[in-house]
Each structure stands twice: as structure tokens, then as C-alpha cells.
Amino acid sequence: MGLLEGKVAIVTGGAGAIGRAVSLGLAAEGAAVLVNDIGATLDGTGRDLGPAKRVAEEIIAGGGRAAVSTLSASDLGNAEKIVAQALGELGGLHSVIHIAGILRDNIFHKMTWEDWTSVLDVHLNGGYAIARAAAPHFRQQNGGAYVFATSTSALIGNFGQANYMAAKMALIGLARGIALDMRRFNVRSNCIAPLAWSRMISSLPTQTEAEKLRVERLQRMSPDKVAPLVAYLVSDAAAEISGQIFGVRNNEIYLFNQPRPIRTLHTAQGWAPASLTEMMPALRSAFTPLEQSSEVFTWDPV
């Protein structure tokens, strides 16, 4: 008996590298999986119905149960159809894992409105839509679990990804808002920041030796390492865990801190620009450095 025996999960982006690993990992723990993937290219264009079908076939070939959806979860109407399909074909719904995403990388002053809106639509609006569509069912059955894929690009930073960073950081707010609003219905909501080789990071530049080394490290990080944490977080064993941000990096699992006040300035007279000019240096040593993800995760994965 696996941790998810008798459970049903929806995985958006369920046929990509990480999504496929998660879909197969959930199935290995006994879950029936609705594999949702439109089969788009990295920038969100095109459609290929094959990948989702192949992942579902892998699950079925391994003795599991699976269904396929190629609807875009970014549309609320589609999201409601996806949830209805899980309930109808697979007989229930206990977790939603939102991994679907695209990239439209560009340095900010060259980023187009389409670059901005298309990325937010898939990551953030898609996360909202599929979560909102599942919420009434979770409330009615008094239980459910969400996992949203965020990124260290949002938590720390990367060049040329202001749209992606904004979308992934917004997902953290969405996940925590759901955790607060729905805990009375025993619904949990968490985020994961997976560091694994996938098409979402295959576009990283490799022009310098440092960039090449970074990509080599990332290529050693298997998407399969992400699946166990997701399976655990949506299982009953994690019933007390909600509103958290986890990371996965090969065999490492870590918990991210979340913004809280770390140092204060106070004056009984209130503040003026001139007095702030004088006192602000007192906070400077606690400022967060302007770093990229690669400058924080400097050690080799094991």
C-alpha cells in the first residue's frame, strides 16, 4: 500500500520533465492521476497531444490508473472541466499539483507586454484557475491538498526573468492565501522550488565557463528527485503541513524562510527624509544582497 492508495490527483504540466516525474511518482504511491498538459513549446506556442497521452500510458502500463486532459488550465472554464473529468473518470479528487509553465525570457527594458502577460497567464492565472475549480469539492469533502511549483528564480533572482520571477513569487502568495482561507476545511497548500534539469531551465545561457559549469551541475539533478516530496506533501502523512515553501535539489530537501521583520528603526518624533538619510545605514548590514540563484547555490548536488 502506497501513501496515496485510493487518492486522485491532478497534475498540470504533467508531461514535462518534472511533471512527468511527479505524475509517475504519485501513481507509484497508489494515486490515480489526471495528466493535464497541452504539449506546448517552451514559449507557450504550439500544441502536441502526445506527451500527456504517453505519460498516462506509462502509468497504466505500470498497473495504475490515469486519465488525460489537454485543456489549458489557464482558463477557469477549462479548469472546471478538468476537475469534473477527474471526478467523473477517476472517481474523486484529493490533490492538485500545479507545475505547468512557460518562459519568455528577456531583459526587462526589452520585455514586451505579450512576454509579460503570457507568462503570468500560465503560471499565476493557471494556478488560480485550477485551484479555484477544485476548491468547492475540497470544501465539500472537508479535505484536500495543493502543491504549487515556484522557483528559486523568484525566491532569489535571475537575469532576464522579471515576468517569470513575478509569476512564481505571486504563486507563493496564492498558496499561502489558500492555506489561510481553507484550513478550516482541512485543505492544505504548499509550494516547492524544484532545482532539476528540465526544459524550464534548458534555456540558461552557456556563454561563459561559469555558465557552462552551472548548466553541467543542473544536468546532474534528476526530476525524479522531486516526486517523493510532492507525494509526501499531498498525503495524509503531511496533514499538519501547510503554507510552507520547500526546495528540492537532488538528494537535498530544504525549507525556505519567509519574509518577517529582521531589524527596526524607531523614533518617537517620526521620520523625515533627512533623518532617514542619517539613520538608514543602521539597516544596511541586514539588506538582502542582489544575487542570482547560482550565487547562492554554489555547492555541487549530491
From TrEMBL:
Signal peptide: none annotated. Gene3D superfamilies: NAD(P)-binding Rossmann-like Domain. This is NAD(P)-dependent dehydrogenase (Short-subunit alcohol dehydrogenase family). Pfam families: adh_short_C2. It comes from the Bacteria. Residues 7-200 form the Ketoreductase domain. The lineage of its organism: Bacteria, Pseudomonadati, Pseudomonadota, Alphaproteobacteria, Hyphomicrobiales. InterPro entries: KR_dom (IPR057326), NAD(P)-bd_dom_sf (IPR036291), Peroxisomal_Beta-Oxidation (IPR051687), SDR_fam (IPR002347). SMART domains: PKS_KR.
